[in-house]
Protein 1
Amino acid sequence: MIKITFPDKNVRQYEAGVSALDIAKSISEGLARNVLSAEVNGEVKDASLPIGEDAKIRFFTWNDTEGKATMWHSSAHLMAEAVEFFYPGAKFGIGPDIENGFYYDIDFGDRMVSENDFAKIEKKMLEFAREKQSFVRKEVSKEEALKYFTEKDDEYKLELINDLNDGEITFYESGSFVDLCRGPHLPNTGIIKAVKLLNVAGAYWRGDETRKQLTRIYGITFPKKKELDEYLVKLEEAKKRDHRKIGKELELFTFSQNVGLGLPLWLPKGAQLRERLENYLKKVQTEAGYLPVITPHIGNVKLYKTSGHYDKYGSDSFQPISTPVEGEEFFLKPMNCPHHCEIYKSKPHSYRELPIRYAEFGTVYRYEQSGELHGLTRVRGFTQDDAHIFCMPDQVKDEFKAVMAIVMKIFTALDFEDFIVQISLRDPDDKEKYIGSDENWEKAETAIKEVAEESNLNTVIEYGEAAFYGPKMDFMVRDALGRKWQLGTIQVDYNLPERFELEYVGADNEKHRPVMIHRAPFGSMERFVAVLIEHTAGKFPLWLTPDQFIILPISEKYQNYAEKVLKFLNNSDLRGQIDSRSEKTGRKIRDAELKRIPYMLIVGEKEEADNTVSVRKQGEGDQGTLTWDAYVGSMQDAIEKEMQKR
RNA sequence: GCCAAUGUAGCUCAGUUGGCCAGAGCAGCUGAUUUGUAAUCAGCCGGUCGGGGGUUCGAAUCCCUCCAUUGGCUCCA
């Protein structure tokens, strides 16, 4: 007999060799039906695996992320089985579970697979699911494993097996499909009740651009059909928040092929919104001791040779601009830092002046790959809310923390609650990609790691995500479809000060090298506004929204009164317009609602008689009648409330 | 840059197996209407069907190519 300990510390005795599934059954049939996998002594395992010794056990169901992972990983196998049925000879790469579902990378040879083929594959998957195929785990020797996939002629699996050690290789067999796999898997495929293949995409084998591109099929499965339907509805809803769609509807920005790919054109309403964000940050920065600077959009190529940008990105950038002078070349600036370094160098500095904080909304140009361009989130010309802090080494931490405070302030002000703080460090296996000495990198990485530890934020470390001159702390926020985008960023840099030979005179009357902190709380105005649009679905807070109200006169007769109201509101620092069209009120309301204008002020005979406005709130309907003063008061209160968050 | 899908008026979309001068709604313009909490009515304007090439008696529809968009991959100073 063995002792099984449950998460609630309860202990029960079982025969050795009992499976997690058996144990679940001994508790209740219902639990047994819902168990997808189990954690046995800290490791997630097949629920059907025999347990030979005393163990701590935890069951995973659909309500656990581990349970979902098991479900989706098994679904990848199920899909592979169906794919193999229709495309015998297809070769399989990897097929993991992901945050929402799973994918499998497949080499179909000469055959083309598109979304048109999904229906039959889905149908076959459900068929196999209904057969309640069990996942049979087999430990195999490396030799056996290699033999199997050599016969199957699957070079991808062979490559994977070659990277594994003998004795740690397992196969899983479900139906006719055998896969190299660590597991764990579902007790059987019958748990999968609803299947949806979502899209196909090319994906390089092992993420390596120089290797063959496989066909990746993404899918998701559910234990209930209803959950799939709900998921699909959610996806549709998310698409409605897409900033590209709302940006068009609300006339915030546009693109023109005549101007160029990835070069956004800000329309008046978008420009107003952006300007308010910029003014807000300018105010915060002034309070935090930043000094404004302004630099040109181009710079001599020499500048970027000094900074290292030329070597690193020169050939993939917009190409240099030549001048009538032989050999003279300018670059569109891809970064503001070299310019700011030159400003720093324009005069000698004393340690007493430090830290110096130069801030600029600097527009930069980068030749992003055409396939990467995406609305406002990935563009070729964008404006960074950039600043560079030049400080002494012992000031780095305090300065870094102060910048973090600004980022957090902004995120709080705009209700960005769901963000990831990512520590982006060097790829330890590929130091060639970076400039600067190991010593400098150590110092910079240590500083960031220490600051992160001292903050109360949950951070994740990503290796290989650093900038080429230094490590970063990146603030990642998701868009409507769950894609992560880097917004705020703070970077510690010991390298550029060296390259630009920046100096200050210390208390010891000797020359010292300052440390640079690059930082951009919004990241770029373009990307930030894009994410803001998706988070708010275009319903911006009052302090930001282009029009706070619109006055809707019932008819032409009340145009004069409407103008008086407008003047009064404008004088009270509120902004809005009059809809003077010869339309019915219902129509004006509908249009204002669709434009997400927060307040509609309906004025007619009654309102004119009592000097009031009839207030309608976007999305909420009629709010009753208020005097001008009362309305202004309520608006000021609402804005005041928003200000407190700022 | 790579893989796949898509590309018809400013926007959203119809256009059967290739067959009469390419359609609708919204937007825009003109006129009528003077309107009370999510679409007033009528008329007009607007497209060389993404560009180019080809097949055909005939192409928005079939083929090739280029461009762009979308979803991924790679990249992201």
Protein 2
Amino acid sequence: MKIESLDLSDEIKRFYENSGILELYPPQAKAVEKGLLEGKNLLAAIPTASGKTLLAELAMLKSVLAGGKALYIVPLRALASEKFRRFQEFSGLGIRVGISTGDYDKRDEGLGINDIIVATSEKTDSLLRNETAWMQEISVVVADEVHLIDSPDRGPTLEVTLAKLRRMNPSCQILALSATVGNADELAAWLDAELVLSEWRPTDLMEGVFYNGTFYCRDKEKPVEQPTKDEAINLVLDTIKEGGQSLVFESSRKNCMGFAKKAVSAVKKTLSKEDREALAGIADEILENSETDISSVLANCVRAGTAFHHAGLTTPLRELVEDGFRNGKIKLISSTPTLAAGLNLPARRVVIRSYRRYSSEMGMQPIPVLEYKQMAGRAGRPRLDPYGEAVLLAKSYEELVFLFEKYIEAGAEDIWSKLGTENALRTHVLSTISNGFARTKEELMDFLEATFFAFQYSNFGLSAVVDECLNFLRQEGMLEKDPDILVSTVLGKLVSRLYIDPLSAALIAKGLREAGTLTELTLLHLICSTPDMRLMYMRSQDYQEVNDYVMAHAGEFSRIPDPFNIAEYEWFLGEVKTSLLLMDWIHEKPENEICLKFGIGEGDIHSTADIAEWIMHVAAQLAGLLGLKGAKEATELEKRIRYGAAPELMDLLDIRSVGRVRARKLYEAGFKTTAELAAASPEQIAALVGPKIAERIFKQIGRKGTAPESTTTEPLEKGSPEGQRTISDF
DNA sequence: CAGGATTCGGTATAGACAGCATGTC
DNA sequence: CTATACCGAATCCTG
């Protein structure tokens, strides 16, 4: 099917033809035949890289140019910015594109001027909770990676959000994009959607198993040279020899880094002079970006054309690795499943070095077929590689047979809604009521009838769980007591808007109410005892230290569980360990030291601090609303967690381009406030932080200084929360 | 006796969304 | 509670 023949405006057709797209891929053509451009709901369950994005674009452009508004829902922030950048290419067509995620946000209402908006599923939910007006104008919703409905922690949000959007805009077109799953027909039926099911790929994919020096595919086998003792390295070298790159999936970070290191000497030999120079440049950028031990290991790997990629790396480092791979310099990325879903980063050959992964409940377990397909699907760059190869490794003939049956010949699993537990429902029940989607139990059940859970299981089973949720929410004062109607209280509305688990909010409120003195530790641990926090695991070497710390600070914890209750106490120690990490962070311990002490990466520090900052914000808000102690303390801690700094630096941190390190330098040199800084000579400051930064600093405080106002020591906003405190009665 | 191979025991185990208001080194 | 791979240390083997 030709682009030219589509029912689209000429400018759209020209846009695609100019970029070299003249003809649709077969699955895309099928989607058009099934009504993609006529506003029909559609579920496309087709492989990665077979043109899902184009489908979404066509539907969105068609609708937007007819005066509509499109919402593109993604599961990852990184994916949101990838799509955002792509859609910005439509600006020539007069189309405005916006992005909304937790870390990057054009203000809600301002977002509404855009024609296409990219958002994560949680952010979409949050926008709904905040009753963002423009959401009613949405005419197309694209739900990317919709198979994530199966995910226990994030699936419920996605399905409830889709149900809300459909309830709000019944005429809105839904385009759901999914990996191939077992029960795509069921998912399509739930969405009242036509189903496009296809295994077609633009680049051939050969899936097979490597065993005993040979790569076995379905219908052919090919020997691979064995210059080294490591089979995976030999596969990598073989790919390089053919001019391709490899992506190696590992099941742990340690292995992931280990393999990149191990491959260094072999891969290095294959590099050209230009490659070496380009790689040295990337390595230097890595070192400029981060000074931890891990980043110097990464830099050394990159110099040799290998790299590793996992969530312990900060975002800039990950991006450097991804870009280096995309432009062909890095020959091998050894990765945890970070790269399996999401980002578009294909390679000639994918090697799955371990198909088993540890889970605390089940021990080592084979990964799901769906996940295997996602990794294998990364093989083969469209238009660049003649074919792609996905390789599993077997140590025995039996294993080879097993792998063929289990993964290569097998279809993906069915997906199942995970909405049916109190943990999943609690927050959505509250937000549904808070938003006025339901004012009675019947209306609530009626709304839930529209979820995938009800479609799969009937919502009969939901009723009892919903009652549990309602009881909980009433008991915690988030819903009015009246049993006949469902109305959220002021507290309930706040909890819904702050996007926190009502259980977390309840725990925080209880902790603040019952606390004696509120120390840093008390508040941090309170945050860490919340289900929204992500905890660190205890390693055996941690027990001693963490336990000693608990003993020494016993009075500062709101509650210490009985050590003989092993499971509960173990959990508690994990909370304390995470609190200790945050303590180190807000006392300005250097990042590398924290990494070494806790055995984590820089990326983990930031993500932990990020969550903690959010929950601390919630604590401050709750304390304010409920008139509990701790509002001031929590607000300060929120800021300290954001910057990772001690209290005495708070004033200096208000200056842009001054973070924990520079603020400390200035402070130690005797410039303890912005006022003292304003009185200093530019030379003094330049000696401390460099002339460029010094100039920036003076530009900011200088401006304040020249303002006719006064010479008070607080030229910058230090908002006192007094007066805006509302005491709710309950 | 040195150096490499082998075995044994201890140990650790993927990822990532959200509020709010603007810019770390 | 279920497994496995890796690491380092101790031990064994070989030239």
Protein 3
Amino acid sequence: MPLRLFNTLTGQLDPLEPADGKALRMYACGPTVYDYGHIGNFRTFLQIDVLRRFLQLSGVALRHVMNITDVDDKIIRNAAQAGVSIGEYTARYEAAFFEDLDALRVQRPEQIARATEHIGQMVALIQKLAEAGAAYQAEDGSWYFRLRAFPEYGKLSKKDLSGMEDGARVDVDEYEKDSARDFALWKAPKPGETSWETAIGQGRPGWHIECSAMAMEYLGESLDLHAGGEDLMFPHHENEIAQSETVTHKPFARHWMHVRFLLVDGRKMSKSEGNFYTLRDLLLKGYKASAIRLALISVPYRHQLNFTFDGLVEATAAIDRLRTFHQRLTEGQFGPGATPAMQEAAHKAHADYLAALANDLNTAEARAPIFDLVRAANTAIDQGQFLAADRDAILAVLKDFDAVFDVIADNDAEPTRQALAWAEREGRMAEVAPELLAAQSISDEAIEALVAERTLAKRQRNFARADQIRNELAEKGVVIEDSKDGVRWKRK
RNA sequence: GGCGCGGUACCCAAGUGGUAAGGGAGAGGUCUGCAAAACCUUUAUGCGCCGGUUCGAUCCCGGCCCGCGCCUCCA
């Protein structure tokens, strides 16, 4: 089923398909690596991951490029303060960024493009703009895009800038510009700042030119899709369009996807509001990576998501339900054959699930048939109306669910372990939740041994000892489940 | 001021012109040595307010109230 995805440019749901019939060429704006990523950043990357994974599930090949902005004003400032080169400074946060993506099971794009490794392409693009009369150099050596050279400016964000007079806004930019709205392509260095010596002079690239140059370098002049956070629509993406289309006279991207913001307690997340969380903050509070992933993708990308800790608790419970069910299927014994009812239920759930995702990546709607199926199957199993082929059919549905959601498979131990190791290195152990430390104090092997001892004690009807062990484990966040099929345990 | 989005049960959150998915929490039950867990059942005569269109609107139109985002670096 082809994906119908909202297109900011056209304002409607458009089918998303590769123009060349082979691979979808998509560009997504990546991070500026000047600090640790926060959960708002990751909501965007997670939603783009949902897009990627659904396309792959649909059999669409991908050529996905993501930039890393590893030079900008903040980086230069922070690196100088730290007394290191910008390369040293950014390397650390870039590594942290990828660690965080891994923790959240966000797939890597096919191509990562660092700004500092594509200075030549940016300079070439600025030269072409200058030839077209759309770029000019100011007295200090900086280059600007002449907005008047691109009459369609504003077509993405639906802004009419014709009524905006120069000087109507206070422009604090200290550089010389022809028009207040003209944006920087290339910034001349102030004394001591990192810069490159190039054909257009000494300096560093502006943020917008990066994305135009790198997108076209890897994907050609006309992309199938360009994605990013909603805040980038204006001016960043508008500027990219202006720069690119002025040179190519072709649509820069046919399809634009914008992920709406994550709010915290109903407000935009910001450090000054005190509602700012990095992924690491949440992991150290004891929340599982899978719960964070599910919470951030369960509200469809086109809606604001109000992040709360209750939401994480809820996601944790939802995942537990799915994992417990999955375990019940894989470990249970079922007779040969199939029941028409379960086969039909599995088939319907699968179809509904895919249809929901194909409908503008409606993740909330996509979850529902999966949980419906869980309930139907649990009921059937309880009633003994469930056979081996039913299990296989349902496991196939869950496999496709996890192909996109990726939360049933339990990969939570490693991110938590890494976050703790990081906290240790950074001297931030004080931020670690006590329950998390308690849980870390017991190994799987030790748990297995205690569970075995408890089972033996129960068999000998030594309930006092059995309960003692149960309590001991509970204190370390380990939950024991006695069932007909045997004893299971899990970490809470 | 301009542009855009949203207000659905205790909480989160889908959705449709014909009478409300799903998750969480709560309650009841099954199971259990007990408990927990697990599992099942259950929970909105109503979808911000007021009009209109319609045989019929939560869903379409108009007005109003409230909240949020963008318009500046920002995912």
